[in-house]
Each structure stands twice: as structure tokens, then as C-alpha cells.
Design brief:
- The chain is an all-alpha fold.
- It has seven helices and no strands.
- The radius of gyration is 19 Å and the shape is globular.
- It starts with 15 loop residues before the first helix and ends with a helix.
- The relative contact order is 0.15.
- The mean pLDDT is about 85.
Amino acid sequence: MKVWVDRHTFPITVSGWSLLWALGLLLGLALLDQSMHEVSIFLVPPFAASLSILLYLPQQPVAQPLPVIAGSTLGALSGTVVAAFVHGAIPAALVAVSLLWLLPRIGIYHPPAIALSMYPLLLYPGRWFPLVVVLPFTLVAVGSHALLSTRVPRWPPYPLVPDHSLPRDYGNRASPSSQADDDNRPL
């Protein structure tokens, strides 16, 4: 019988403390959602996705502070601006694909940001959703994650410490050296 999921796929194990951290943040949003539901929607699924990225992929570019905070806020802001003129599934899909193209190009790609861009067009969370909900949540999530990574044993290190010894085009398929390698590869 073939096993489809290898238990070594994610070498980082999450401690009980990190699960309590995620639970605390999500329960806080749930309480805000119940007490201030007339203001906005606070507990949105992309936030759980952001927390899982912070915990399981803390050293990846999508988990770094700038993409999490700016990417998520820009995603929600884009959806909110478009929602001022039109609502529905088609505009939501167009905004999502536009951000799927844009965010990696400006260096702030965070996958939940794409989903956050669709919320204002589908669920009407209010015009202040990006600033009242998304920006504070991402600041608290990133800030507390960074703080806890220095204080709690076995907490994954965060944020990424850049390795300045690597060349600037390291890992870029379009770099001249990798292009030359591709040209010399046998068909």
C-alpha cells in the first residue's frame, strides 16, 4: 500500500505552545466577531492559513513580516476598493488573479492575501476591513510570533535572517548562468 503523505514532509513539528498561541489569536478574533459583528467580520479563514504558514514555514519568503503584513493588507484593500463599485464572484475572481500576478512581482506574495482580496467582494465586511481587521491581526500575529521565537524553547526561529553571502540572483531561473546551463542541456 502506497503512503501518499510522508511524515517527513514538514520537518518542523509544532509545539503545544505554538498551538495555544494560534488558538489564542483565533479565539480573540472569534470574540471580536461575536461582540462587534456590526463593525466587521473578524474571524476569517485566511487568518488561520496565515498562522499555519507562520508556524510550519517560518523561514520561507511567504512567511516573512513584509509579505504577511503588507501583502495581506494590500490584498484586502484591493478588494475593498473594487467593492466600492461592484460586488460578486466575477469581480472577486478578477481581483484575486490580478493580485496573484502583482504580489510576487512587488515582493509581498502571501497566499492568504489573495483570499483576503475576495472577502470584501463576496461577504461585505465593511469599508474599514483592511485597516480595522487585517492590518492589526497581521501586526499582532507577526510581532507575537517573532517575540515568542526568542522566548519559547523549540519555537521555530522567526523572521528569516537573510544570508548576504548568496549572490543576488540565487535561485532565479532567469539568471544568465542558469540560462546558459539550460542552453547546454541535451534535449
